[in-house]
Each structure stands twice: as structure tokens, then as C-alpha cells.
Amino acid sequence: MIPIKNAKEIEKMRQACRSASDILDRVSDLVRPGITTKEVDEAAADFMSDAHVKSAFLGYRLGHRVFPGNICISLNDEVVHGIGTQRRIQYGDIVKLDIGIVQEGWVGTTRLLYRWESLMSEPTSCCAPRKMR
Fold first, then answer.
1. Is the pLDDT of residue 126 over 70?
2. 7-30 vs 37-50: helix axis angle to the nearest 10?
3. What is the tens place of the pLDDT at every residue in 22-62?
4. CA distance 52 to 33
5. CA distance to 11, 98, 111, 127, 128, per residue, from 23 (Å)
6. Overall pTM > 0.70
7. Cα separations in angstroms, 114 against 44, 79, 91, 128, 132
8. Could you give the CA distance from residue 50 to residue 109 in angstroms, rounded to a whole number?
9. 3-state secondary structure of 54
10. Which of 53, 51, 67 shows the shortest CA–CA distance to 105?
11. By three-state DSSP, how is residue 36 classified?
């Protein structure tokens, strides 16, 4: 059975998603060619701390495996759920960011996918935004 949320609970869910979106905005401002995915992950941890929220991913257990990242960051042909490493983002890379946070017991998640074409370009979205119903 799916529990039906009341108005107060729905507002808490919305606030968690807003916080995740705000953190994604801050993280995406840092992503550029030359930065490592680990530096992006560490900055995301700082932004979460500033917002008084916790990563929904860090320490997540699946059997004997434990997720070590604060966010999921994947490049190019990496599917999803990438972990920040010393790998540097380069021009032409497709960067996938997935932010998940826990705020007052509620989880908010959001993601972004984009790439840099050249030195002079701004990042471009690889996906058209979709309006939620």
C-alpha cells in the first residue's frame, strides 16, 4: 500500500527538493574543464553542510557495498551513479550530476546532464526540460 501524504508532508517533500535543486545550482556553477570529479563531490559536501542537510547517497549500503560519494557524478559513457575521483573534466565531456539530500527526514533529488563544446562555449543541456504534471 502506498501511504497518502497530507499537505504538511507534501510541503516538506517540496522543501527537500528545493534544497537539492539549490545545491545542484551551486555545484553546476563549479563544473568546468580542468576540475576533478572529486573536487566537485567535496564542494557538494560543503554546500550540503551549509544548507544543514545530509547526502542521501553517502554511506548508502547495498549488501556489503557502501557508496563513498556525496553525489553521483558521471562522465561520458559512465552510466550513472559515478563516484568522484581524480579524473579531470575535459572539453567535450558529457557531465551527469545527481544530487540527493535528506532534510528533516525527507529526501529530495535532482539531476543535470550537460557538456562543453569548446573553450569559448558555455555548457549546454543535453536534455530538454520536462514539465512535471
1. no
2. 140
3. 999 999 999 999 999 999 999 999 999 999 999 999 999 99
4. 29
5. 18, 10, 11, 20, 20
6. yes
7. 17, 14, 11, 11, 20
8. 17
9. strand
10. 53
11. strand
pLDDT in tens, 93-118: 999 999 999 999 999 999 998 876 65
Alpha carbon 90 to chain centroid distance? 19
Contact (Cβ atoms closer than 8 angstroms) between residue 128 and residue 117: no
Say how many Å lie between the first and final Cα of the chain, rounded: 22
User: What DSSP assignment string belongs to 62-122?
Assistant: ETTEE---SSEEEETT--S-----SPBP-TT-EEEEEEEEEETTEEEEEEEEEE--STTPP
pLDDT bucket at 131, cuts 50 / 70 / 90: very low
> With contact defined as beta carbons under 8 Å apart, do 118 and 49 qualify?
no
Retrieve residue 7's grid coordinates.
499537505
